[in-house]
Amino acid sequence: MKIEPLVTQSLAKQISEQLREAIMSGELKADDRLPTEEELASRYQVSRPTIREALKRLAAQNLIRSRRGPAGGTFVNRPTLEEASQSLTSSATLLASMDQFSLSEIADARHEMEAICCRLAAQQPDPVQLAEMAKELAIQQQESLSDEEFCASDVRFHRALVDMSRNAMLQFLMYGVIEAMQPVANMVVYRFRDRQDVIEAHKALYQAIEQQDSLAAGVALDRLMVYLKARFEAAQQWKAEQGQSSAGQN
Amino acid sequence: MKIEPLVTQSLAKQISEQLREAIMSGELKADDRLPTEEELASRYQVSRPTIREALKRLAAQNLIRSRRGPAGGTFVNRPTLEEASQSLTSSATLLASMDQFSLSEIADARHEMEAICCRLAAQQPDPVQLAEMAKELAIQQQESLSDEEFCASDVRFHRALVDMSRNAMLQFLMYGVIEAMQPVANMVVYRFRDRQDVIEAHKALYQAIEQQDSLAAGVALDRLMVYLKARFEAAQQWKAEQGQSSAGQN
DNA sequence: ATTCCTCTATTTGTCAAACAAATAGATATT
DNA sequence: AATATCTATTTGTTTGACAAATAGAGGAAT
Question: Which residue range forms the structural domain that includes residue B16?
Fold first, then answer.
């Protein structure tokens, strides 16, 4: 006689799993409207709060959205690369904050992966993204730029580079990885001299890709990444020391 | 006069965001116990169902777990690489199912990224993972193996390779990417001859890494990946045709 | 004294019924 | 014809209650 483990999971969890399957399998397509909460409740033979908990689980994963009113209801979301990347970022940030991996590992992974993008980009650079990079390069040279704005432009510059890889999966991953480094990047104080160094590296990167010179692009990226990694580590150490001393003061 | 958009978000969403912040910032550490639902309700001045909805959102993201009874309650989860990779997989699968990117893009991304892992692994191969790879290699040569078991062993083989990169961030990403390809991989029917080809490539890969020959490892991986990609595309096309004809029959 | 059982208090899981708030569409008014 | 109002529908939130699991305390039997 085989004893089955019964279903001891909460009803809400089971229902949300079922709906999730339906969405993933394509049974429920983007922008499809789900039955009303009341109808779902009667169909699953549970109460409305239980249905609501199930729907909230899905909403937390950005799989559905809800609107009130007639013609309102619950609809299947079309996931965007952007949102998916953000959830990847938050996973990575969480893992990092729980010491599952270090920031230097993130930096190394980014370095390696961006090198791929560099190579792919240099193979057939796209004028649109090239123009984007040039634009950000110009922005970065404005001396009045705040540190936040400089970082934001830096992110856009690298995203344009990633876009040129013409591979959406790589984009999805890289957006997430780049984003995951922002908290540290924003901690770095860019003095005038530092910005100049970064901009020079960006320029070299831009020109190499424009000229379809993957080798030079790789070299320029290496230079930039090694430089950034050193800055990150310094910033992180500084932060650790601050934490130490302030902890000591308490 | 500036009109602020007020807070039109649902209470549950706001609360879950606040708790999420607390977890991410480290204010709430792993295995910490949250206040009871009732206490949270009174603290936030909302009803218990609202609190529950907020908690369910977090539960859906694997950030918390709940147990009934005294000494029960809601606890902060320690996220694992494994779980995070699974959520990455499901994001990727979802995006793919919604045509945000194609399976060939996933395959290409995996190819490029696994090449990185190969290079890193060959730099300083780890005996433990090498033994793991050898073990899986032996398993794959059993002729009685079912297709599913062959695929599962294939996954473990590649994961061992990825582990040798000694970079947890790359592991996290690669586990997800490899997993994202499984639905297609499982569709492929491996005839005897095909398995032999795959095993040969695995052998070459294993030996190259063992001998710290990154170049040879790269070549072996290229061979394997090109081969697999061709098989995947064939399987995918076959599936599309099946869908077409069965759709016509209905 | 030790082991086992039962009982109890605590906490999450589920339900029911109701009202609030938003909103699209119909209807009435100017 | 344009605008304002009403109404029906649907999600958002509250209250109150009971069910189910479970850790720990206390008692009974060996």
Answer: 11-76
Instruction: Give the least confident one: A225-234, A241-250, B76-85, B159-168.
Output: A241-250
Q: Evaluate the CA torsion angle A110, A116, A121, A122 in order and state its sign.
A: positive
Strand D, nucleotides < 7 Å from a protein CB: these are 8-17, 20-24
Nearest to B131 by CA among B109, B157, B111, B102: B157
Please report the number of interchain residue pairs, chain A to chain B, with beta-carbon separation below 8 angstroms: 139
For residues B71 and B86, state if they share a domain: no
- Quick: pLDDT tens for B153-180: 999 999 999 999 999 999 999 999 999 9
CB contact under 8 A, A97 and B169: no
Q: Which residue is nearest to nucleotide C9 (CA to C1')?
A: B70
Task: Quick: pLDDT tens for B130-156.
Answer: 999 999 999 999 989 988 899 999 999
CB atoms within 10 A of CB A142: 10
Instruction: Give CA separation, B16 vs A10, A70, B23, B226, in Å.
Output: 20, 27, 10, 45
Amino acid at A32: D
Q: From the list A93, A120, A168, which residue is nearest B101 (CB)?
A: A168
Contact (CB<8Å) A53/B58 = no
Q: Report the mean per-residue pLDDT for chain B.
A: 89
User: Same domain for A56 and A122?
Assistant: no
Give nearest nucleotide to A72 (CA–C1').
D10
Distance B163 CA to D1 C1' (A): 72
Which nt has its C1' nearest the CA of A74?
A: D11
Stated in angstroms, how far is A91 CA from C19 C1'?
Answer: 39
How distant is the Cα of A143 from the closest Cα of chain B, in angstroms? Answer: 30
Mean pLDDT of A178-202: 87
* HEC string for A216-236: HHHHHHHHHHHHHHHHHHHHH
Across all strands, nucleotide nearest B48 (CA–C1'): D14
B60–A56 C-beta distance less than 8 A: yes
Domain boundary among B76, B100, B118: B76
Phi then psi for A8, rounded to 5 degrees? -100, 0
Question: Do residues A67 and A90 both lie within one domain?
Answer: no
- CATH of residue A60's domain is 1.10.10.10
Domain count, chain A: 2
We report the CATH number of the domain holding residue A154 as 1.20.120.530
SS3 A65: strand
Give the residue from A21, A55, A76 where a domain finishes.
A76
Are B56 and B110 part of one and the same domain? no
Provide the pLDDT confidence category of residue A214 given band limits of 50, 70 and 90. Answer: very high
Instruction: Judge whether residue B243 contacts strand D, using its CB and a 7 Å cut-off.
Output: no
The two tokens of residue B185 are: 């991989």
